[in-house]
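User: Quick sanity check before I run a bigger batch. Here is a single chain. Can you write out its predicted 3D structure?
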Amino acid sequence: MVHPRVNSAKIPQFMGKPVLVACTVVQRTPDSATVVTSDGGQITVQFNSALPENERPQDKTVVEIIGSVINSSTIKLMKCSRIGAPGATLDNTLFNDVVEMIHDAKYRDIFFPREGDGEAMQFA
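Assistant: Done. Predicted structure follows.
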């Protein structure tokens, strides 16, 4: 399944849908995390209580989060993957440029090539 890469500004376009966010965890509680996305915006990531602790983002780490958009500033965690070694930093400019290109219509065929039936691939 394809999950669109988003930053905090793009999240409202995907209400109720899964997205992928590259971010840095800046604050962690038992039930959620506050993260800074590639465009510098902050969002809240709510944890699923059934998700084991070792599969939740840890404080001060760079992660990719797949989650379902709840509202314009909150996603519900589905999966979390650490990017790089502990203490790594996120190149926000590079990640954000990629997010912006993915959502730019002139690059659509590069990121979403046409399938056999002539229809462009769609986000889930």
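Strands lie at 18-28, 32-37, 42-46, 62-71, 74-82.

User: Great, the batch can go ahead then.
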